[in-house]
Amino acid sequence: MQRVGLGVSSALAGEAGEGFARARAMSVLRIRGTALAVALLPAAVAVVLLVGGAMGRIVGDTSHTVRWSVGGGALVVLLLAGAVAAVIVRARPAVSPTVPVAESAAPDLYRMVRDLAVRLQVPAPSGIELTPDCDSWLEDRTHRLRRRRTAGGEPMAPVLVIGSPFMWWMRVAELRALLAPVVAGTGPSADPDIAAARRFVRGLDAAVAISAQPSGKWGPRRLAFPAYAFLGWVARLLLRGCRAHAAEMERAVAASASERAQAVDYGLRIVAQEQVGLAYAGWDRLLTRVALPAWRMGRWPSRLDAGVVAALTELSRRDRLAEGFESRLGERPACDLLEEPGTVDEAASLLAARLFHAGAHKPGPDWSPVGWDTYPEEVVDRIWRGDAARLVSVLDEVRGPVVRASAPEPAVDTAPAPERLLMGGQALRAARPPAPEATDERPLASLEEPPGRATLARVLDRLAAGGSEELAARIIGHVAREEAAARRISGDLDTTATTPVYELLPPRTGRELLTDHVTAMVCCAAVDTAGAAPGLDWLDGPTLLVNGARRADLAWPVLRLVENGDAAPLRSWLAAVGVRLEKPVRLV
Question: pTM for this structure?
Answer without folding.
Answer: 0.79
